[in-house]
Design goal:
- The protein is of the alpha/beta class.
- It has one domain: Vaccinia Virus protein VP39 (Rossmann fold), CATH 3.40.50.
- It has 5 helices and 7 strands, in the order ββαββαβαααββ.
- It has a 7-stranded mixed beta sheet with strand order 3-2-1-4-5-7-6, sandwiched between helices.
- α2 packs across α5, α3 packs antiparallel against α4 and α4 packs across α5.
- The protein binds S-adenosylmethionine (SAM).
């Protein structure tokens, strides 16, 4: 199975995501230093330094897209559109996101330093915008961050073309959302296939 790890960071064990050693894993991260560190830790994977909002892959390149806490730092509408584009029909998206309490903890941790506090207030505002519209806006620093709600995720995923949206909470408190790209007519259930 071809798996894309979006916002792969330094690389991490993907067992919790049911990724097995026979899977063909490609990691993408915007940060070159993190890509280099990931390449050292997991040399058997393929890596690209790229933005999740503009993926350097052809349509239908992957059976699965996963992302562990990478999407909260992206323009989510664009990242979902790209994830949908690079998935095969029937392919699955599985991501963990940041809930509002993550952002509140970050706010408490940085208060009263003015710039970090201002940035956290932007993240809260962006999370509210995401809740209402399923879209995010970029901050005054040029970076994007938001917290995610089920409502906002449903809006953004449906808009990008995903279906079968479901949520689960992992034992460590992570909120995980899964969705799939519509199968082609006549496609066998659960099997993502190349054209
Ligand atoms: C919280 S870290 C998670 C890293 C990794 N997934 C993990 O679980 O350890 C978020 C990662 O997303 C990356 N990132 C942020 N914005 C991005 C973007 N627009 N496109 C791709 N990666 C991005 C960051 O460089 C960072 O490595």
């Amino acid at each position: 199975m071809r798996v894309l790890d979006l916002g792969c960071g330094d690389g991490h064990d993907l067992l919790a995501w049911n990724v097995v050693s026979t899977d063909d894993v490609t990691g993408v991260d915007i940060n070159g230093a993190r890509v280099a560190a990931a390449r050292e830790r997991f040399p058997g994977r393929t890596y690209w330094q790229a933005a999740g909002e503009s993926l350097p892959f052809a349509d239908g390149s992957f059976d699965r897209v996963i992302s562990n806490a990478g999407v909260p730092y992206m323009d989510i509408a664009k990242a979902f559109t790209e994830a949908h584009r690079v998935l095969l029909p029937g392919g699955r998206l599985s991501i963990s996101v940041h809930r509002w309490n993550f952002t509140m903890t970050e706010l408490r941790n940085c208060f009263p330093k003015p710039i970090p506090t201002l940035f956290r207030l932007y993240v809260i505002a962006n999370g509210i915008i995401f809740y209402c519209t399923g879209r995010t806006v970029r901050s005054f620093t040029g970076m994007t961050e938001s917290f995610q709600t089920k409502r906002g995720l449903r809006i953004a995923l449906c808009r990008a073309g995903f279906e079968n949206i479901s949520f689960s909470e992992w034992a460590d408190g992570r909120l995980v959302v899964e969705a799939s790209k519509r199968k082609r007519a006549g496609q066998v259930a659960g099997v993502a296939t190349a054209a």
